[in-house]
Amino acid sequence: MRKRISLLCLTLAAIGMLAACSSNSASTDEKSKKKSLTFVSNFPSDTLDPQLNYTTVRAGIAETLVKVNEQLQIEPWLSKKWKTEDDGTTWVFEIRDGITFQNGKDLNAEAVKHSLERTIKESEAMKSVLKIKEMKASGQVLTITTTEPLATLPSELVHPNTAIIDVDAPDTKSKPMGTGPFKVASFKPNNEMKVKKYKEYWGGEPKLDEVVLTFNDDENARTSALQSGEADIVYRPAIESLNTLKKDSSTVVDIQPSLRNQMLFYNSRQEAFKDKNVRKAFDVLLNPKDVVDTALAGQGSPANGPFLKSLDFSNDQKTNTYGPSEAQKYLENAGYILKDGKAIKNGKQLSFKLVTYPYRPELPLMSQMLQSEAKKIGVKMDIQQVENMDEYMTTKNDWGIVTYSLVTAPRGDAGYFFNALYMEGGAFNVGHFHEPALTSIINKLNKTVDQKQRNKLARQAGEIAEKETLHSSIVHPNNFVAYRDNVKNWVTTKSEYYVITKDLDVK
Fold first, then answer.
1. Other C-beta atoms within 10 Å of 170: how many?
2. What is the pLDDT of residue 445?
3. Over the chain, what is the mean pLDDT?
4. How far is residue 210's CA from residue 35's CA, in Å, rounded to a whole number?
């Protein structure tokens, strides 16, 4: 009898062990099926507040009413359609049905209204661009009235700073509640963020279970992360590593022309840069081809203006004559004489601070090239690197030139660029220029719906900006991404707005 009990106990124990093994095996199998991806970029993220940072849209957390496709045409997103009921002052947007925020709250016109109200409260730049006078919500219909006719309102609502979030959520800075395919799991400012799939996403369940997004401003460190297998996708690996990465059969390198322009902004509050001739001197000092070959290692093209040549509103106003001798002529026109190797006017050498930033490494290189050439014409230029360029150039006036990388036509239209740089309250109006003729054309552009007429006005605006040298367009850098060959459905977008999508996957 005791033998039977012992055998029974052993049998039951064995069954229990098998069950436990089976359970552990199932758990291991389930875990192994979890799809995760690591993305490393040079995009700094000290907050997830969409009014202050693009990361919320890039990471697939939040979405805007309107988006831009790869043909640079705007198309519906959270809003399924829109129309203007008059001359562009009253706009009616119909919000899609069946969408929820990641906390389960329904998306309706009232929620969109509250989110946009927060946008114009928190962002002076967006308040200036959107020109919203009032909004009315009824069910899924949002009516926006602007202070003046604004033909570009739908395209302005593509901007990541207009991302729609639940404003009643407790922590919009580190855990915003959007409508996107991924929701925040954890966030360490300027370090790492983890997002996990939102299974109830209105566009269909995301293919990935989670994504880890890390920030590193060292391009070599980003490259190493890919080569060691720590990263699946790396945005902008080191330029000099591209040929090596291309030879690696386990790596895919995607290179696309970008909408960016590496530019010089001038500060008209510095006495020297009030003179157009001084600005023109620095406009012609560097040969853009040399910048492409040296700072970009060939990954780019010389800029003939702020926009790519392929865009209908681009105009070629750039001179083809560059170098110190050409720049010297403009300094002489400004009243400077070269004496003992110094550009002198009223007994003082022309000297100023040039400010740049490190997380686009070609900009400090371009700055050093400019400094070297400036020395040849007797100009003393001190270079300062800052971490937060946007904050610095909008709050400080101790600089003469800043180098900046700007996506000039993110929505496939010139309006963004001219409004941002040259209208009062513009996000990048750091030069403090006021050109009445240019302002007049931009005002007309903002009221014009017909695309051919808009392109014509944009070219006219570009001619004035170039003639007055209100900025200098130097080069268009290529956009390049490297990723492991097990990554599926990655798209290097022209706008750089959409990075982590519901379709992104791993084999």
1. 8
2. 93
3. 91
4. 7
pLDDT computed for residue 318 by the predictor: 61
Q: What is the pLDDT of residue 125?
A: 82
Q: How many residues does the chain have?
A: 507
pLDDT tens for residues 223-241?
999 999 999 999 999 999 9
Q: Is the pTM of this model over 0.90?
A: no
Please choose, from the candidates 499, 401, 421, the residue with its C-alpha nearest in 3D space to the C-alpha of residue 42.
499
Please report the pLDDT score of residue 18 as a whole number: 38
Answer for the pair 371, 354: CB distance below 8 angstroms, yes or no. Answer: yes
Q: Where are the alpha helices (DSSP H) in 204-297?
A: 219-227, 242-247, 276-283, 288-294
For the chain, helix (H) and strand (E) counts, in that order, are: 15, 23
| Nearest alpha-carbon partner for 408 in 476, 354, 454, 478 | 476
First and final CA of the chain: distance in angstroms? Answer: 57
* 158 and 407 Cβ atoms separated by less than 8 Å: no
Element housing 211 (H / E)? strand 210-215
DSSP, collapsed to helix, strand or coil, labels residue 404 as: strand
Two tokens, residue 251: 């790596």
Question: To the nearest 10°, the Cα dihedral for 211, 231, 411, 315?
Answer: 180
Q: Looking at the DSSP assignment, which residues form a beta bridge with residue 125?
A: none
